[in-house]
Structures are given as structure tokens and as C-alpha cells.
Amino acid sequence: MALRIGIDLGGTKIEGIVLESGREVTRLRVPTPRDDYEATLAAIVSVVSELESRTRGTATVGVGIPGTISPSTGFVKNANSVWLIGRPLVDDLSSWLGRPVRIANDANCFAISEATDGAAAGAPVVFGVIIGTGTGGGIVVRGEPIAGANAIAGEWGHNPLPWPDADDEPAPECYCGKRGCIETYLSGPALVTDHRRRSGSTDSVPQIIVRAANGDSDAVKTVDRYISRAARALAAVINTLDPDVIVVGGGLSNIDAIYERVPARQAWRFERGPRRRLVMA
């Protein structure tokens, strides 16, 4: 049977999985060499090599990236892993691995997976949200991913935060050159930065969430601001796309308050399934 390797190239980790006839055989996770393009290529090649060594076979390779490949240039664009921007990642990885490599936006990969056999299986219109090192989104309509003419459909992270209030000022700078992008409020680094700016604490995201659950006032206020911003950002998606299901993934998708409190601010209900999802009421 043919082996397939899928690589998730994230801002903090690179994870590879081997599939055979749709069944997981083995997987491997390594840290992402941040700010180093050549080292990132080498890390991906190393993961593929190790996975193939374990399975004693040669596999096809597909990579999900926190950005997209420009249809006009073939280079990476819109990547929060900024060291990938402007690089011919498809050509370089194909050359390093000695085989064709397919690359797609990670949020699109996530959305099509969830719409196929995950939390949104069977839903006509699905919006997949990634909130982790960055903030991305993907759209699936009747089982087909919608990439768009410029390969940026669903990229809500670089729209401005809707209905900003005094708590959202000053609008943070974004790597894209603008201020106040949704990503600068909802990503993991953004949550940590917001908490540090208001409290002076250097806590990580998990520490902030634990402190909030234990009643720490600064952490509670940080989570309150985050929930408000997430609700407003998703409201703009709902007003534009009106999806049947919004599925949330990425490291921050483990924050229970998102599912408990964001729907309460909208006409939404939440159902727990194999993965988290927000479902239209």
C-alpha cells in the first residue's frame, strides 16, 4: 500500500504523520527552527527521513504551512512564520526530498479535514479557525475547499478587529505592516503580550488560563478581553459567510472559555464532539 506523509509546519513545531490506507502508522514532532529558512527545510527533510526509516518505505509528501503559495509567483506569502515569505518553498522542498511536494495553507487543510470526517462532517458550509502562533481560517463549501483567486480566502486574521473599544487600544502592530489585525489580538503571543502589558506578568497561555480559573483578577480580565475580541471577530465572519459550523483548532483551541462564553455573546450553541465546534442555533 502507498504511504503518505503529512507535515504540519507550525510556528513552534513541525509534526509529521505517516498514513497507510487512511490509517495512522507513526508520527514525529520536532521544534521549528524559527527565523531560519534553511534550517526549517532541513528539519522537514529530517522528519520525512525518520518517518520513512520507521516504515521502511518511500512516501508522498504534503505540507500544511501558516501562509500560502502565491498563484502568480510560486513563492510563500502571508506567513506569520515570516522567514518563509518570498521563498520558493515548493521547489526547494521538492529538490531537497527528490520528489514532488504538495503545499497548502494549514487552515484550509484543517477545515477540509474537519468537514470530511471531523467535527463538521456533513455540514454544507464550514469555517475552520486556527488560533495558535498565528490566526488563520479556511472555508469549505459542500466538501470543497475555497482557496480564492489569490489563495487567501478565509484569512480573517488580517482583517481589523471589529468594533474596537478602549480596552483594545493602542492597536498592536502586525508583521503585515498594519495595526489592529485580528491576529494581533487572538494569537497565542498576542494573548501573552496583552497580559504582560496590563499586569507585568510573564505567564504563558496555560498559566494565564489556570490563574483565571483560580480567580486571579489580572488573568480574569485578560481572558475577558480575549473572549470579547474572539466573539467580535467571529461575528464578522458569521455576518459575511453565515457558516453552518465553525470548528476551532490550534493551541488556543484548548481554552474552554471559548466554547462556554463566545456563543453566549451570539445566537450560537456549542456541541462537544471529537473536536471542538461552534454550531449555529
Describe the biggest sheet?
Answer: 6 strands, mixed
What number is the mean pLDDT? 92
Instruction: Give the overall shape, derived from the CA principal axes.
Output: globular
CATH topology of the largest domain: Nucleotidyltransferase, domain 5
What does this structure look like?
- Mean pLDDT is 92; it is low at 270-275.
- The longest helix has 25 residues, at 217-241.
- The protein folds into 2 domains: 3-99, ATPase, nucleotide binding domain (Nucleotidyltransferase, domain 5), CATH 3.30.420.40; 108-280, ATPase, nucleotide binding domain (Nucleotidyltransferase, domain 5, 2-Layer Sandwich), CATH 3.30.420.
- The chain has a 6-stranded mixed sheet.
- By secondary structure, it is of the alpha+beta class.
- It is built from 8 helices and 13 strands.
- The radius of gyration is 19 Å and the shape is globular.
What is this entry, summarized?
With 281 residues, the chain is of the alpha+beta class. It folds into 2 domains: 3-99, 2-Layer Sandwich (Nucleotidyltransferase, domain 5), CATH 3.30.420.40; 108-280, ATPase, nucleotide binding domain (Nucleotidyltransferase, domain 5, 2-Layer Sandwich), CATH 3.30.420.40.
